[in-house]
Design brief:
The chain has 468 residues and is an alpha/beta fold. The chain folds into two domains: 213 residues, Rossmann fold; 160 residues, 3-Layer(aba) Sandwich (Rossmann fold), CATH 3.40.50.720. Helix content is 43%, strand content 13%. The protein is built from 18 helices and 14 strands. The strands form three sheets. It has a six-stranded parallel β-sheet, with helices on both faces. A six-stranded parallel β-sheet has the order 11-10-9-12-13-14. Helix 11 packs antiparallel against helix 12. The longest helix is centred in the middle third of the chain and has 32 residues. It binds uridine-5'-diphosphate-glucuronic acid (UGA). Uridine-5'-diphosphate-glucuronic acid (UGA) binds next to helix 9 and helix 11. Uridine-5'-diphosphate-glucuronic acid binds next to helix 9 and helix 11.
Length: 468
């Protein structure tokens, strides 16, 4: 099929590249000429596994880049809108980019087209898109508007797209449903998975995925409700972790015990320093705003947000409790991205914590495998950037683990202990087993688990023993 994808941000790029890999002819539209030139020349603006490979495979063949939305609409059977929906001051999603795309599309509806909202948008957006297209003169029979929310996680977006748990499609007519069925047919029929050049299947995937057809309003709500539920799961376990800390229980054991209940499931039950990123914080606020507008005061979401913020403050209090005064202390920081596997620092709890530490006049030496370039733009002064985890730890009063990068979970502990000034690790992501850390000569503080402090010796004594 011929498909236009509007917006070459993270969702648009991944969607466009994956549609091309399914065998469709894709034109990726953006109004930023510089970005288009870079993409045409082979640049890949985001850190996303397999994206470079897919763009390399299809650039100039199944995928092309254009600044002309009307021409792209004319030559396509489906137009996917994947432009940004940033939050306004009140927490609502700003839909002005979506509206301007809808307005422009309307002048190019010259045969039956399906306009698909892919950006995360509040309920009623597809109705508004339809209204805008009609107001600008399009023939009502010549187009339909569908909602096809994405459930991509940054870092694994390509495999999430190609091996989804489900594909949700919200439509108001059978004709429109047929177009979307055809677009996703290589996945739903399983044909893609039999290809020798298919992107490798991740461990947990069950194929082929189910296509769930709903009304447009239900599809819009599915997206917001999914993200809100996942964020709620994280805040729930963070609240449980706080109780574990108070009573001396171990949140890892609690997670194991509740996560094995198939009704609950083990995923998204990792306690930490709170969720961040460009989705959960923004989508929760937008969902809360949309609920309020429609007469429902969704106070549960207020609490999810409050617990999330409190989690960061709790961690900071833990750092204070371990180090006593903070002014002038040198801290090694591992992780700046909002989670492992991405260079994205938007709403990153790690970055927010570093900013707090700087306000407390700590000296911070930070390392992140991918996010340092972005972090340098925000953390203008006061932070040293290390070339690896060991350099960040060198001479530090304590080491803080703030992002769940896989490489931070398998550090050479003996080397680390020798480099630190005091063998103290505060782990905001529970990457290590406390008993192992003590065996390796560390005092180790994590989230929701009893602190594992070196027995019978202060950290200074342990260090002296080591030197002797
Ligand atoms: C999230 C959703 O998981 C996707 O399904 C959705 O499509 C996407 O938002 C979106 O709306 O576009 P993403 O923001 O990429 O994806 O990241 P997640 O993997 O969900 O992690 C979000 C945050 O929660 C991170 O800061 C992560 O560290 C934190 N987290 C996650 C936890 O603290 N504990 C967990 O158990 C899981």
């Amino acid at each position: 099929m011929r498909i236009a994808v509007v917006g070459s941000g993270y969702v648009g790029l991944v969607t466009g590249a994956c549609f091309a890999d399914l065998g469709h002819e894709v034109v990726l539209v953006d109004n930023d000429e510089q970005k288009l030139t870079a993409l045409r020349n082979g640049a890949v603006p985001i850190h996303e596994r397999f994206l470079r490979e897919l763009l390399g495979r299809h650039r100039g063949q199944h995928i092309k880049f254009s600044g002309d939305l009307q021409a792209a609409t004319r030559e396509s059977e489906a137009v996917f809108i994947a432009v940004g929906t940033p939050p306004t001051e009140t927490g609502d999603a700003d839909l002005s980019y979506v509206e301007s795309v809808a307005r422009e599309i309307s002048g190019a509806v010259d045969g039956y087209k399906v306009v698909v909202e892919k950006s995360t948008v509040p309920v009623y957006t597809s109705q508004w898109i339809r209204t805008v297209i009609l107001r600008n003169g399009a023939n009502p029979a010549a187009f339909d508007v569908a909602s096809n929310p994405e459930f991509l996680r940054e870092g694994t977006a390509v495999t999430d797209f190609l091996y989804p748990d489900r594909i949700v499609v919200g439509v108001e007519s059978e004709r429109c449903a047929e177009v979307l069925r055809a677009i996703y047919e290589p996945l739903t029929s399983g044909a893609y998975y039999g290809r020798a050049d298919a992107i490798p299947r991740p461990d947990r995937a069950t194929v082929p995925p189910r296509l769930i057809i709903t009304s447009t309003k239900s599809a819009e709500l599915i997206k917001h409700a999914s993200n809100a539920f996942l964020a709620m799961k994280i805040s729930f376990i963070n609240a449980v972790a706080s109780i574990c800390e108070s009573v001396g229980a171990n949140v890892g054991q609690v997670c194991d015990g509740i996560g094995t209940d198939s009704r609950i499931g083990p995923r998204f039950l990792n306690p930490g320093i709170g969720y961040g990123g460009s989705c959960f914080p923004k989508d929760l606020m937008a969902f809360r705003a949309v609920a309020k507008e429609n007469g429902y005061d969704f106070r549960l979401l207020d609490e999810v947000i409050r617990i999330n913020e409190e989690q960061r403050h709790r961690f900071l209090r833990k750092v204070r409790a371990v180090l006593w005064t903070l002014r002038g202390k040198r801290l090694g920081v591992l992780g700046l991205a909002f989670k492992g596997g991405t260079d994205d620092i938007r709403e990153s709890p790690a970055l927010l914590l570093v900013e707090e530490l700087l306000r407390e006049h700590c000296q911070v030496c930070a390392y992140d495998p991918a996010a340092m370039e972005h972090a340098k733009e925000v953390l203008k002064s006061g932070v040293e950037f290390a070339k690896d985890a060991y350099e960040a730890a060198t001479g530090a009063d304590a080491l803080l683990i703030l992002t769940e990068w896989e490489e931070f979970a398998c550090l050479d502990l003996d080397r680390l202990r020798k480099l630190l000034k005091y063998p103290m690790v505060l782990d905001g992501r529970n990457l290590y087993d406390p008993a192992t850390m003590v065996e390796h000569g560390f005092s180790y503080y994590s989230v929701g688990r009893p602190a594992a402090v070196l027995e019978g010796a202060t950290e200074v004594q342990s260090k002296k023993r080591e030197r002797a």
